[in-house]
Amino acid sequence: MWSTTHGAGRRLPCDPPTPGARDVLPGPPRRTRGKTGHTPRELVAQAHERGLDAPGTRAGAVVAWLADEYGVGRGHAMALVHVLRNGAAIRTEHVGGTGPHRDESDTLRLDGRATRPA
Question: CA 50 from chain center: how many Å?
Fold first, then answer.
């Protein structure tokens, strides 16, 4: 188990880095499907059915729904909020780069790792 310093020197457990982590959603959602049993695209559809993608919807409503329904943490939930508000597009600053935050594309694959090109 890896740990990282967070806030005022607190050490919190976290997952080791996973190559290609941005295949699913921005932020830390490497395990969203494993935890919920749904791909990000399916979660976006469920949010739409609940009206959580309507303009003016507070992020806290999405965070509360995912926490109550699936036990998803705030970081993963906020990644879904990003997709609900902005679609599958992400900033291009790391596209084609060589650093740890690099991406091959400015479009997220919402169907999970199974659709990642070889």
Answer: 19
Q: Which phi and psi (to 5°) does residue 36 adopt? A: -100, -25
Cα(first)–Cα(last) distance of the chain, in Å?
Answer: 28
Cα separation, 50 vs 107, in Å, equals: 25
Mode of pairing for the β-strands spanning 2-6 and 10-14:
antiparallel
58: which residues sit within 8 A by CB, 6+ positions away?
none
Pinpoint the alpha helices (H) of 50-95.
59-70, 74-86
Helix (H) or strand (E) holding 2: strand 2-6
Are the C-beta atoms of residues 44 and 110 closer than 8 Å to each other?
Answer: yes
Bridge partner list, 71: none
Find all residues with CB under 8 Å of 97, minimum gap 6, and list them. 103
pTM as predicted: 0.65
Q: Reduce the DSSP state of residue 14 to 3 states and report it.
A: strand
> Which residue is associated with the tokens 């990642």?
116
Q: Which pLDDT tens digit goes with each residue over 20-52?
A: 434 444 444 445 666 788 888 999 999 999 999
